[in-house]
Amino acid sequence: MSAVAITDVSVRFQSKRAETTAIGHVSLDVAPGEFVSIVGPSGCGKSTLLKLVSGLLKPSSGSVTLLGEPVRGPRHDIGFVFQRAALLDWRSARRNILLQAEMRGMNSAEAGRRADELIEMTGLSGFENALPHELSGGMQQRVALCRALLHRPRVLLMDEPFGALDALTREQMNVELHRVWRETGTTVLLVTHSIAESVYLANRVVVLTQRPALVKEVIDVDLPANRDYSETMARQEFAAATAHIRDLLGAVTEHD
Amino acid sequence: MERTWRPAALLVACLVIWHLVTVTGLVEAYLVPSPAKTFDLLVDKWSYLWGHTWVTTCETILGFVVAGVLGVLVAVAMVYSRTIESTAYPILLFAQVIPKIAIAPLFVVWLGFGFEPKVVVAVLMAFFPVVISTVTGLKSVDTEMLELAATMGGGPVKTFVKIRFPAALPHLFAGLKVAVTLAVTGAVVGEFVGSNEGLGYVILQANGNMDTPMLFAGLIVISVVGILLFLLLDLAEQLLLPWHASRRGAAVTTLLAKGGT
Prior knowledge:
The structure holds 2 protein chains of 2 kinds. Chain A is α/β, with parallel strands linked by helices. Chain A folds into 2 domains: about 1-75 and about 160-255, P-loop containing nucleotide triphosphate hydrolases (Rossmann fold, 3-Layer(aba) Sandwich); about 85-150, no CATH class. Chain A is built from 8 helices and 10 strands. In chain A, the strands form 2 sheets. Chain A has a 6-stranded mixed sheet with strand order 6-7-8-3-9-10, sandwiched between helices. Chain A has a 4-stranded antiparallel sheet with strand order 2-1-4-5, with helices on one face. Residues about 250-255 of chain A have low confidence and may be disordered. Chain B is mainly α. Chain B has a domain at about 55-235: MetI-like (MetI-like fold), CATH 1.10.3720.10. Chain B has 12 helices and no strands. In chain B, α5 (about 100-110) crosses α6 and α5 (about 100-110) packs across α8 (about 155-195). The longest helix of chain B is centred in the middle third of the chain and has 39 residues, at about 155-195. The radius of gyration of chain B is 22 Å and the shape is globular.
C-alpha cells in the first residue's frame, strides 16, 4: 500500500472572468517512509498538490488516497509545515509545539515528553520558553517542524519550509531535516524551489511543468541513505541529478 | 525619561497660558475663571462633585461593559456567518450614524429619568468600535494558521478559543480603548437630556447659574474619569497581552501608563 496515492488529479479554479487550470492530470505514488521532493516553476501548483493530499482542497477530478483511505476532507493524520512558521505570538516555543496536542486532545504528560524529545532532536533546547518574536527564522521553523511531528504523523507535508531562510541556515535545516527523517521514518512530501535541497533530501524528485502542472519527469536519486552534507554535494551523482533537473526546469546556465 | 517630561511640560504650559489669560484680564473673569479659582472650587465642593462623579462613572462602566460583551458577541456572529454579517451591517451602521444626542430624549421618554437611559446611550456610543475592531481582529488570523488548525482536527470551538480569539485580542483592546472614552461621552449626553444627578447634570446646572468655575471643574472631572478608565484598560492590556505590548515597543499610550516611572 502506498502512503500517498494521487491518481489522475486535476484542479481548476473558477474566477469571475475565466477558469484556470492549476493542475492538469497528475498521478503520483509515494511509498511509506519515502522522501519525495516536488520542484517546478513558480506558481505551477506545487502547493496546491500538498493541499490536495491534506484534504484542505478538493480536486476537480481524480482521487487522492492517504494511508489507504480516500481523502474527503481535512485529514488529521498528517503533519503540515508552511513556508511561514505560523506560530502563535502569545505562546512560548514549547507551548506552540504543544498546540498540536491540545487541539487533538492528546494525553498531556505523554505529549510533554514527546515535545521535549523533539526539542532535543531539533536543537531547540534552551529556547523552550522563548516567544516566537524572540526567535530567529530558523528557530521558528524548527518549532513549526516539532509541532508537525508531535503526534507522530506517518505523513509529513512541507510547503517550502525553508524558503524564507538565509542560505546557511537553510543548509543547517536541510541536514537536520534529513536526520529527523532518518530517525522518525516518516513519509515526507517536500515542495521546494531549491534544486540542491530537493536532491539532497529525497529518494525521488518530481519535476512539474508550468501551469497547468503536469509531471514532467520523476528522478530517482541515487545517493546513499545516510547523507553527509558536504560529501553529498561533492558527489558526481549529485551534480548529475541537479544538472538534469536544472535542464528540465529550463533554468538559464549562461555563466558556465 | 524624556518622553515623560514632554507631556507634563505641555500640560504645565497649558495651565500657565490659562493662568496668564485670566490674570491679564484678556477675557472677562466670569467667562473664563482662573485655574486657581477652579481648583479651589474642586477642593471646596469635592463632596458634591464626588457624588455626581460616582453616578456618571457607574453609568459609564455599566454601559461600557454591556457594549463590550454585546459587541464581541455580535462580531463573532458576523465573522462566522456571512448571512448575519450582510444582514446586520446596515443596521449597525444606521445605529452608529444616528446622532446619539438626537435619540437620547426618546430613551428618557421610554425609560424615565433614572440611570437606564444614560446607560443605553453609553452602550450605543461604545458598541460600534468594539464590533468593528473585533471583526477586524478575528479576520486578521493567518489563513495558514486556520488551515493548520483544520489538519489538527480540534474543531471550530477549540480553534476559536485557542487561536482565533487570542489573536483578535490586540484589535479588541484597541476598540475597547476607543469605546471606554465614548462611553463617558454617552453617559454625559444621557444626563444632559434629563437627569438630576451626574456630571452632565452638574454642568447643566452650572451653565444655568453662569457658574463658570463649576462648569470648568465639571469638565475637568469628566476628562479625568475618561483618562483613568482609558489607563485602566491600557494596564489590563499590558497584563493580559504582555507578548503584544512588548512587540509594540515604545508606543505613546504605553508610556502614558508608565508615566510615573
